Amino acid sequence: MNPLPVQSAVNIRPHLQVRHWSRKAKRFAVVLSFLAPSLLLYGLFMLYPMFDAVRLSLFDWDGASPTMSFIGLDNYMNLLKDDVFLQSLFHNLVWVVISLTLVVIPTLVLAVLISKVKKGRLFFRAGFYLPSVISLAVVGVLWAKIYDPLMGPINVTLQKAGLGTLAHNWLGEQWTVLPALVIVGTWAFYGSFLILYLAGLQNIDPSLYEAAEIDGAGPVCKFFSITIPSLRYTMNVVISMVIIYAFKGFALIWIMTQGGPFYKSEVVSTYIYKSAFGMNKVSYATAGGVLLAVIVITLTILFNQWRERRE
Amino acid sequence: MLISNLKKFVATASVSLLLVAGCSSPTGSSSNAPAENKEPAAAAAADNKQLSLLIPNFYNDTEKHQWESVVNKFKELNPGVEVTLSNGDVNTESGKLTTTLQSGVTPPDAILMNAGPGRVSILSDVGLIKPLDDWYAKNSWKDKLQPFAYQMAAVNDTIYELPHTVDAIEVYYNKDIFEKYAIPVPQTGDEFVATMKKLKDNGVTPLNTAARTSFTVGGLFSNIMESVAGRDAVEALLYGEKQWTDPEFVKAGEMLADWAKQGYIGKESMSLNLADLQLSFLDKKVAMMISPTHLISTIVDKQEEDSVGAFTMPSFIGGEKTDPTGGLGYTWVVPSKAAHPEQAENWLNFIVSEDYANVVLSDPSYNLIPTSQAALNVKPAGALLTSAIQSIEARSGYNPSVFIGSEAKEAYYQNLVGLVGGLVKPQEAMGRIAEGVKKDQEAGYQLTR
User: Fold this and answer.
1) Per-residue pLDDT, B434
2) Percent of chain B having pLDDT more than 90?
3) Which Pfam families does this UniProt record tie to the protein (chain B) (predicted)?
């Protein structure tokens, strides 16, 4: 007697399942073999140090001594009572705000203008990208000279133009030092953001502009109604990068002011560097680093959530 | 969903970390045991006649030539030894030296760093440099050093450094500017202020410092403290017998702030570094600057020996005499992981020898004051250095930044810059330095007599 069709299906199912899982396992092995080297390196050089940093931040350790004592969250509690750390964190937030103001829209406008250029577009692209390829050490030294209160071109020009009252000791005064540094940081990185915008602009369908023109839309209307909405993903990337760069910034500040004068340009990264290597408070500095990372990650997640909700 | 996953991840990660941290032995990280206990690769390289030295960056070619002469003399006395001289940042304040020694890369055999227990302790506290007590006993270095140099190195139970130079921080001035306005060298504190006022009234910036190279502001303030509070009071302060908030030190802070407010200290000081400061002084844009003798080589390099003079900042305490401030200038330390410690010992013996003193002091451009007894028998060729050596023959004052701990030093530099920039009140500034001292004391840093 031939088995019923249902019965035969039941009999062959285990066999099919084995083949199915075997195929899945093979595919997984292939994928893993491709991913393993980078995963291994990522784990070794990124994940392990990150988790080890959190572990270290729970100890009292000077960076070289053979002993370290477990102190739980004391480093974090002390950081929250440390005036200089809190001031540094505030400076980081100011840096974020000024950077966003100077980068997001102005760079987009610049990218749009360059994209409209008929001849010499390459020249403008290369020219504006140039600062991004200069070493930050060179940028720091260069701008320190530009900001020089006596011989710097800014003050010299202001004085020659009869605007001497506007001349400042840009890196030496409490209200000018931070904006002056942010301008340098922006100048050094805006080429990278410009390239992102230019790439985004190339992906906008030209027929949208043509349709808008037929409907009588002007350049400003097209910019706000077509360009900005079409570039929202690029803008999200730019904003995220600006926030991360603003919190990570170290080299320029270290070269130009080392956090001075009187902590007025101190940011978390310079403060934790001083704590770790100038004062041997390695675990304390590590806690500062962890706290900074948590803040950056939280801000980035919150920003992305807000963006997703809006969309 | 995203938030739920995130919460799970954060919770799992936190628990794992706390478990890992809690289970770790308090004496974990055995790989960080001080290398001095391991007797590093030195044994393997016992017959290797190599010596690598890390010294401060040269300010000019003159200093480079000085060091070439020194190394050549050493090689002449030690045939077959290959010396590698490299330059770098030797301040503990910038963190580079500590980072270099902690990096695991084979360190130099000896390092010439900015001196003083406050700086050396940053390295010795964590076992990055060798104790030198054995070498002191074996080579009789105590007898080969001038007594005050030895005393300054031996402020704690263990000695980690061999003093190379002592500082004499004084006022350097442009003679031609003083002559142009018929200003004599001031003899009292009041005359010094009058000098600055006269220069300012004539449109000349009297004094500059370099906030971006903070030890220059520290040097300036050390002179003011010596002049306002006196040497004994500063000594008592550094040994913990007085407080930074005591009236005489607050008065010194008020004076620094007032000089800046009156325009006696150029406003541009807030954004100058050491190189800018030296250039502004030697280009006659400013009448005076406060400096150790390091400046001499730049003066010689710029051929300004005849137009620059030096004097000790006079006292504001009636009838008292002041001394140039200082303490140790540069000092030699030997990294725990040095590959050729026997050659380092050989080199340090050379540094305290008459051969070394002869080489450096016969050079008119030489700019440092040696610490060896042997150097006392050699007459320096340069006039400015001769004058500086004579000025501290009897004794020198104190430069606090050499003696205070790391927390206090950070507060010291930042608050002095704050005073120059009008960003902090003197009483508050001294209070913050006192807080730094307290933190250092809690961490076990204290000078003992």
Assistant:
1) 97
2) 66
3) SBP_bac_1 (PF01547)
Alpha carbon B43 to chain centroid, angstroms: 33
The pLDDT value given to residue A303? 87
User: Which residues in chain A have Cβ-Cβ distances shorter than 8 Å to B411?
Assistant: none
Query: Which of A90, A59, A54 lies closest to A75 in space, CA to CA?
Result: A59
Closest Cβ opposite residue B211 in set A144, A172, A277: A172
Q: From start to end of B148-221, where are the E strands?
A: 162-163, 165-174, 205-208
State ipTM: 0.78
Cβ separation A173–B6 shorter than 8 A: no
Domain span at A36: 9-56
Closest CB from A58, A170, A262 relative to B414:
A262
Q: Say if the Cβ atoms of B95 and A278 lie within 8 Å.
A: yes
Q: What share of chain B has pLDDT > 70, as a percent? A: 89
Which parts of chain A register pLDDT below 50?
Answer: 1
Closest listed residue to residue A174, CA positions, set A255, A293, A260: A260
| Phi-psi map region of B140: left, alpha, beta (phi>0 left; psi -120 to 50 alpha) | left
* A234 CA: distance to closest CA in chain B (Å): 22
Q: Which pLDDT value is given to residue B23?
A: 42
A104 and A187 in a common domain: yes
Whether A30 and A80 map to the same domain: the answer is: no
The count of domains in chain A is 2
The answer to the question of residue A3 being in a domain is no
- Name the more confident of A10 and B327: B327
Separation between Cα atoms, residue A121 and residue A128, nearest integer Å: 11
In this predicted structure, what is the pLDDT of residue B6?
A: 52
User: Is A292 inside a domain boundary?
Assistant: yes
Q: Which residues of B touch A69 (CB under 8 A)?
A: 26
Same domain, A142 and A225: yes
Pairing between β-strand B325-328 and β-strand B165-174 as defined by DSSP bridges: antiparallel
- Mutating which of B270, B406, B420 best tests the A interface, going by the most A Cβ atoms within 10 A? B270
User: Residue A136 carries which side chain, given as an amino acid letter?
Assistant: L
Domains and their CATH numbers in chain B:
8-166+327-391 (3.40.190.10), 168-326+401-448 (3.40.190.10)
Chosen for mutation from B3, B271, B433 (greatest number of chain A CBs closer than 10 Å) is B271
What is the rounded average pLDDT of the residues B416-438? 96
